[in-house]
Amino acid sequence: MKFDTVIIGGGLSGLICGIRLVQEGQRCAIVSSGQSALHFSSGSFDLMNRLPNGDVVTNPLSSVKSLMAMYPDHPYSKLGVEVFTELAYEAESFLGGIGLSMKGSANKNHYRITPLGTLKPTWLSTLNLAVSDSESSLPWKKVSIFNISGFLDFYPRFLADEFAQLGVKSETFLFSLPDLDHLRRNPSELRATNITRILDKDTNVKELVNIFKKASSDSDAIIFPACLGLKDSNVLEDLQRLVEKPIYMVPTLPPSVIGIHAQQYMHDYFIHLGGVYMLGDTIKKCEIEGDKVKKIYSYNHGDIPFMAKNVVLATGSYFSQGLIASREKIYEPIFDLDVNYMKDRPDWYDRNIFESQNYQSFGVKTTATFNALKQGMPLENLYVSGAILDGFNPIKEGSGAGVSILSALYIANRIIKKEGGI
Ligand SMILES: Cc1cc2nc3c(=O)[nH]c(=O)nc-3n(C[C@H](O)[C@H](O)[C@H](O)COP(=O)(O)OP(=O)(O)OC[C@H]3O[C@@H](n4cnc5c(N)ncnc54)[C@H](O)[C@@H]3O)c2cc1C
Predict the structure, then answer these.
(1) Residue 422: is its pLDDT beyond 60?
(2) Least crowded by CB within 10 Å, which of 6, 100, 135, 260?
(3) Which atom of ligand 1 approaches the CA of 47 most closely?
(4) Cβ(259) to ligand 1 under 6 A?
(5) CA distances (Å), 333 to each of 214, 266, 330, 364, in order?
């Protein structure tokens, strides 16, 4: 099977790279084992929330220079200030351009509301997610918080307590619908995705209108768990119009309906543009000649290799098994690429789980152009993108989605240029 580019891993990074490439007319395949980090995401994308020294970042564009000075091997340092800035803006227009509109800007972090009601800085948030421009206030005086009876992955009481500390009054409501009863018989079935499939039905949207109208007339907004719009995000628009009040969603504990919607939306978009997405297949080995990857092999396709001018490795970190940690070492399982990690295992982690964890910054080493390194030598047609990269700590810095998106766009643009595109 011959393609212009094969992308291994179909999470946020692989999909963005793939869409960008097919937009430019490339024949592109994404091979992906299964779920990605998006299935567990908050619905917001972080670019940079903190510097490595702990300083809070309010404007990622102006703070990135300090980050680069502290961490010269950071993926953002490889880009440099100018390209980082260009790509951050490109990412915003790219997402809007494919129909995945989000609010936020790289020159000012805003604050998303976590499932526990606290505020966390972030870059881009899904429209209709409850957010604030300020870390010390919320944009409402009074809200009505609704939850589904028996749903344990959403905590109205915590939200109400945190909101009260910021001077916002709340009233809380529990409701049920006959269609939810069969889920309620088994508490493990009463999960965000299952609930959403039921609430998204037209008949239940009408029921929700009646339920939401119970909110008092002096409440400014309705707050609801992110259990709407799995396939079609317009459900929320319709509901708001009928209720005549803004409705904002707060993320639940995983699975993340917003993240799954984004994953599915980008998957469909990629296929719609002519991309080939092979879900449930795993790349297991490769053939390398000189400085080029010649063939890659998957479980499902056995002896039939994938061949491509360029290959992008976007297999994620430990969570998605792009990196494997054994007792002795951390390795990349497909190409056995060079991985940056500390040799002594006790150095990998801090026993205090609230401390920065070194293992978070381990990853595949690359050149400044994100070409993979194997035994110190760059591979000319193998690029590395997203959470598998070394040199950044997505949790401590709040840079997870930013690195995944910016590296994906950088690599896609580089491949397009290399192959004679724009
Ligand atoms: C649980 C979790 C929640 C997060 N939430 C947020 C958030 O809310 N906001 C934020 O900014 N950042 C968040 N992050 C950081 C996150 O890493 C990035 O935001 C980003 O989604 C990672 O995307 P990725 O495509 O690089 O990797 P992943 O999303 O991990 O995708 C990698 C994909 O590669 C596939 N794969 C792996 N090995 C193979 C193989 N051999 N063959 C084929 N396919 C393979 C996997 O199945 C997976 O689909 C979160 C991370 C985790 C782990």
Answers:
(1) no
(2) 135
(3) 11
(4) no
(5) 55, 26, 9, 11
In the three-class reduction of DSSP (H, G, I as helix; E, B as strand; rest coil), residue 420 is classed as coil
Distance 388 CA to ligand 1 centre (A): 9
In order, the DSSP letters of 351-366 are SSTTS--GGGG-EE-B
CA–CA dist 337, 389 (Å, integer):
11
Task: Give the model's confidence band at 421: pLDDT under 50 very low, under 70 low, under 90 confident, else very high.
Answer: low
Preceding amide of 255 cis, omega within 30: yes
Q: What is the dihedral of CA 321, 326, 329, 335, to 10 degrees?
A: -40
> Residue 64: is its pLDDT beyond 70?
yes
CA distance 70 to 30: 35
Say whether pLDDT at 163 is over 60: yes
pTM of the predicted structure, to 2 decimals: 0.96
The confidence score (pLDDT) of residue 354 equals 83
The verdict on the CB of residue 41 being under 6 Å from ligand 1 is yes
Half-sphere exposure of 236 (CA within 13 A, CB side): 22
Dihedral (CA of 385, 388, 392, 395) sign: positive
> Of 107, 104, 82, 85, which Cα lies nearest the Cα of 95?
104
Query: What does the alpha-carbon distance between residue 384 and residue 335 come to, in Å, rounded to a whole number?
Result: 11
